[in-house]
Amino acid sequence: LESGVKMWHLVKNHEHGDQKEGDRGSKMVSEIYLTRLLATKGTLQKFVDDLFETIFSTAHRGSALPLAIKYMFDFLDEQADKHNIHDPHVRHTWKSNCLPLRFWVNMIKNPQFVFDIHKNSITDACLSVVAQTFMDSCSTSEHRLGKDSPSNKLLYAKDIPSYKNWVERYYSDIAKMPAISDQDMNAYLAEQSRMHMNEFNTMSALSEIYSYVGKYSEEV
């Protein structure tokens, strides 16, 4: 410092304490991290595979497939038949938007919603890669990758075709399951309500609904 020279170790030290934690990573050449990315992917591969297989399987699950999923997917198929929509990509997209992309991506990207943990910027970046891979697996379009594609897209490029097959198999297996009657569905919902009746504040929920209705009373 006395001679006007600062020593750095690959990464320039923060000169300002208010810089975000992830800022230093953006200043590094991405190729420096490529070996580390591949090593990390190899370490996590089994866990990612297990997660995807559990989500996209009716057999490899910790519990039976919820009746609501079968009921919802059958409803979507019925609506497609009713409106003469025979494109399998449309049905696939409907189902993906209802469950995997609406629910599971949110859980993968935000584990703090379920677990009492802190998610720092590095963990967030890693989970974003897994979530993006999950979304690509649910897509029906082909993903053309080249030398200019981002490294996080290239990481799972060879795995995505297998994951897509899992998704298609999952939807096909659910379609082959016995249909759920309205009576069975109503009984299932009543049982769920009974099991969780003491976990929610009914008056608080009604208060939230009341404030919403008050705000949009004319539209309602």
UniProtKB/TrEMBL annotation:
**Could you state one GO biological process linked to this protein?**
regulation of cell migration
Q: Which GO terms describe its molecular function?
A: semaphorin receptor activity
One Pfam family of this protein, by short name? Plexin_cytopl
What GO CC terms are in its UniProt record? Answer: plasma membrane; semaphorin receptor complex
Gene3D superfamilies, from UniProt?
A: GTPase Activation - p120gap, domain 1 (1.10.506.10)
Where do the coiled-coil regions begin and end?
A: none
InterPro entries for the chain: Plexin, Plexin_cytoplasmic_RasGAP_dom, Rho_GTPase_activation_prot
Q: Which residues form the Plexin cytoplasmic RasGAP domain?
A: 2-220
Q: Which domain of life is it from?
A: Eukaryota
Stated name of the protein: Plexin-A4
Native species: Cathartes aura
